[in-house]
Amino acid sequence: ARTERRAGHEPDTHRRRNPDSAVNSRENPLELPVSATPPAFFRSLLGGELQMPVIDIEVGGELVGRMTVLADPEGARISLWQPGRHAGAAIANEPGTFAWNELMTRDVDGARRFYGQLFGWDVAPIDGAENGYQEIRVGGRSNGGMLPWHAEIGEMPAAWSVYFAVRDCDEAVLKIRELGGNQIVPPTEVGAGRFAVVADPQGAVFNVMAMNTAD
Questions:
Q1: Nearest to 28 by CA among 55, 66, 57
Q2: Cα–Cα separations (whole angstroms), residue 116 to 60, 151, 173, 187, 193
């Protein structure tokens, strides 16, 4: 299963400023409130916390979009984007592009409630998954997953991770190591394909995955 994201144009340059006008976020949580909105807004509404004031991103005086950074009730950070001219990723699920989101959480029920209210996601266990893995679905299509924390993961905070699609997981890991990156979890077979957890030379952690089939 792979996430569905299409359309939009990536700007070459941008500048940021605080917005001057309000948007009615109480009626639609995906419409972002003005920067003056206190962090208590998200805490009282959903139990999350605003980590960065809402800002407009403009190119040549044209609104590209609005963004903010939110922490969920467990502290996992996620960026929110309200489209202007730029709707989102122009390409996804192709080798070298975004393919999957995953939240590692100690509170699956709480995460399901929070993100269900925020985005309207449907989250349910995957049949036969021994680790209790949860699938996120939007409009009937897979959009990511939630991994319940377990002892083998070790001590780490709740966090989102990103998967990039590759043609061959093993070859991708070899290339990452040649370029100065590191392998954290070796190539491993799962139901959806073959994945590995890696880090770039600066230590930023991400995942690569060769998907078995398209959703």
A1: 66
A2: 36, 26, 34, 32, 27
- Who contacts 9 (Cβ-Cβ below 8 Å, separation ≥6)? 85, 86, 90
pTM over 0.85: no
Beta-strand relationship, 141-148 and 134-138: antiparallel
At 81-108, the pLDDT tens digits run 888 898 888 888 899 999 999 999 999 9
- Please give the structure tokens belonging to residue 151: 């002892």
Spatial distance between the Cα atoms of 31 and 24, rounded to a whole number of angstroms: 7
Query: Are the C-beta atoms of residues 123 and 112 closer than 8 Å to each other?
Result: yes
CA distance 36 to 38: 6
Element (H, E) at 90: none
Note the helical H segments in the chain. 40-46, 108-119, 169-178
**38-42: long-range contacts at Cβ-Cβ below 8 A with a sequence spacing of 24 or more?**
42/70
3-state secondary structure 97-130: CEEEEEEEECCHHHHHHHHHHHHCCEEEECCCCC
Residue 118 sits at φ, ψ, to 5 deg, of -70, -45
